[in-house]
UniProtKB/TrEMBL annotation, chain A:
This is ABC-type quaternary amine transporter. Belongs to the ABC transporter superfamily. Keywords: ATP-binding, Nucleotide-binding, Transport. Residues 2-238 form the ABC transporter domain. InterPro entries: AAA+_ATPase, ABC_transporter-like_ATP-bd, ABC_transporter-like_CS, P-loop_NTPase. It holds the Pfam family ABC_tran. GO terms for molecular function: ABC-type quaternary ammonium compound transporting activity; ATP binding; ATP hydrolysis activity. The lineage of its organism: Bacteria, Bacillati, Actinomycetota, Actinomycetes, Propionibacteriales.
UniProtKB/TrEMBL annotation, chain B:
GO terms for cellular component: ATP-binding cassette (ABC) transporter complex. GO terms for molecular function: transmembrane transporter activity. Keywords: Signal. It comes from Nocardioides agariphilus. This is ABC transporter substrate-binding protein. SUPFAM superfamilies: Periplasmic binding protein-like II.
From TrEMBL, chain C:
InterPro entries: ABC_transp_perm/SBD, MetI-like, MetI-like_sf. Residues 225-248 are annotated as: Disordered. Keywords: Membrane, Transmembrane, Transmembrane helix, Transport. It comes from Nocardioides agariphilus. It is found in: Cell membrane; Membrane. This is ABC transporter permease. The keyword Transmembrane applies. The chain crosses the membrane at residues 20-44, 56-80, 92-112, 159-183, 195-216. One of its GO terms (biological process) is transmembrane transport. GO terms for cellular component: plasma membrane. It is a multi-pass membrane protein. It comes from the Bacteria.
Amino acid sequence: MIRLAGVGKTYEDGTVAVHELDLDVAAGELVVLVGPSGCGKSTTLKMINRLIEPTTGHIFIDGSDVTTVDPVHLRRGIGYVIQQIGLFPHQKILRNVMTVPLLYGESTATAKQRASELMDLVGLDPATYGERYPHELSGGQQQRVGVARALAADPPVLLMDEPFGAVDPVVRIRLQEEFLRLQRDLGKTVVLVTHDIDEAVKMGDRVAVFATGGRLAQFGTPAELLAHPADEFVEDFVGATRGLRRLTVTPIDRDHLEPLEGVTTGDLGSAIDVDATLEEALAAMLRDDKPVVGVKDGSQFVGVLTPAGIHRQLRESLR
Amino acid sequence: MSRALGLAAASLLLLATAACGGDSLESSGSDNGGDTGNADKGSVVVGGQDFTESQVLAAIYAKILENEGYSVETKLVTTRDVYLPELSNGGVDIVPDYLAGITDYLNTEKNGADAPLVSSNDADATLEALKPLAEEKGISILPPSDATDQNAFFVTKEFAEANSLTTLSDFAGLGKPIKLGAPPDCEGRADCEGGLTETYGFTISEIVPLDFGSAQVKDAVTKGEVDMGETGTTDGSLSGMGLVLLEDDKGIQPAQNLTPAVNADFLAANPDLEDVFNALSAALTTDDLAAMNLAVDVERQKPEDVAAKFLSDKGLL
Amino acid sequence: MLGDALAYLFDADNWSGPAGIGTFAIQQLLLTITALAAAMLLGLPLALWAGHRHRYGFLAINVSNVGRAVPVFAVLLVLSLGPVGSETFGPYGRAGLATLISLVLFALPPLITNAHVGITEVDRDIVEASRGMGMSEGKVFSSVELPLAMPVIMTGVRLALVQVWATATIAALVAGPGLGRIITRGFANQSTSVVVAGALLVAIGALVLEGLMVLAERYADPMRRARSARGNGPTTVRPDELLPDAVV
């Protein structure tokens, strides 16, 4: 859906913000650009909608080269969400969400209808919140509006620059989960920038790790990144706890569970679903202070997992 | 190190420019540092006002007195009501004043603001009215000079020559309505609109309110915006601008002859000074005043230098 | 003396006629509004454009510092005696053009500085968001930057208006129209009460204009309604609202 070919950014004074890179994002995929400050991830994101013009390379969206088209027109077809949200303080919430449809020349009635739908989608009742002003909403609520505003014209692509950075951790988790659900429902192609490796691993179908100085260090699934970091930088970046993190992205292998024979109900605490991740299995064990956790498919027990079994499954997932 | 140097240089520059401030040190009743030494006849305080002409005259008086062996201190103030009481009580010994000006002042002081005028175009009559008023205040009046600084009206030289005008009566005789450039209080005044219309028979269609003797009023006359403007008889800039005064032949202006006013006690103690100042008054003409004003205002010469040159030219030193 | 001044003002005869207070006040108003309008037409577009481009900030801010140091009357005198001349310029009286030019120059600094600062101070994140969602530069300016900068810009207009009104008094010094004529007349006739009366009129006029502008500012402020909207505070969670349902 999105393809960056040899795209790079060098400023007039010679600073290289982004080394020439190749990146592709499949339709409906959520790709996360992650890295420390000054690694060029935001710059790369902004080159996609040409808020920053690339100095080398081409950008293709849905097959067409957008490097030379009218940037204003391009941006209308791409949703854009930023950390500080940037709602217009002098307009009501509903009016904020209606911005892009109105730019397209849609009638007020149509735009209003669409905006209301989107507000429902992000979990804000338009009747309650539509007539309020941005300053009356909490940070989390405002960012929901930001997302609704970005989706108002039904763009195929969504760009997000540290969208959940300005809210507190509890709210952030909530927003992340709700957004993932939303993205799966709508099937939007999303490129998201963050500096938080946990967020990257949680949200991304694939993750691009940027190193300081604008270099793309590795581009792969979270599991690949955590299991096989490409170089020392990535290894440092994902951190010493990458083993633990891998548990969160590795699903339970139902074909290699440990047998139920010999396990009593007293041995078990709460059970987990077979579609859960290894992390949830271990977490359940530790929470219930039991040496095994039962794995169920629906109401049927299909096996158990012990810590050794989890370790084995993790090892196997490398291949 | 270089910062301290820079600061020192800046301070020095500041002091230097302050010192070059020139003659801007007058203030009400404060000294002007015009002290001289080597006196055997005692000290004298010369008073005056801080406009150019007065400064020049005060400088002339001071030099004459120094020449006679006095040590002189000069005090220049803003208005007559500041120096006149000093003249009465001896704080100031001598002042170059104007005949009708000092007469009007003492008259209104004694008889009230609405008292009928005792000054007029007739210098002798005005002097007669002045003397008793002055004596009451302990002031002696020395014989006035023929040099005057009074209001006068001017037109362009071109216009005067074309119509053979030398006096105001000549102009009035042309019979045309005129536009006048004069200060806003001109209307009704005997020495301005009142006198021009009643005594001379001018028809004044409009008075454009422009300041007395200002660059603006001269510009307006030159450009033809007004036919006639008001300035002083000692305005030295006129001929250079192609402007010329018309004589006040019917005498609507009160006599403003240059008149030395002296503290009575001081004069009694120094009677020889009367002859000295009479010589000065005889030698001084209106044209001299005009030339000296021009030298200070336009050529930026110092009043002291201008005074010295005048005195040596006239052989009074 | 204040009593005499007030007596002068309350005397109905002084208000009527071609040399009356009423005429002079209207003349001064005409001078003021013309000069202000001209200055706004001249200065605002440039300043707003420069602010939008985030350039020439140093110039825009320092033009006010320099402008304050310029003696308006000296400029007026030089212009009226020099190139512009002192011809009667319609209802603006003698040396009307020179007076207008001087007043326009005087009005420009606060207009320029405030317009520039107003635009550049608009929250950069909001501007970036608006650009990112596909607004053209013109739309960013007209829909986002200008409305949000309006309070600061209007303050500049208010400052300029009151300053120009007060300074238009100097037109009388070149025999032009306006309330300054009352003051010069008072000076010439050595009537302090008339001088004070003239000064009072100018001061009262300034206050009235200031008051009107404050109202106009309030009306033109697009955040007016937003600010007054209190609504339910963001952190209010009513006791009967179940936490899982609360949208955070």
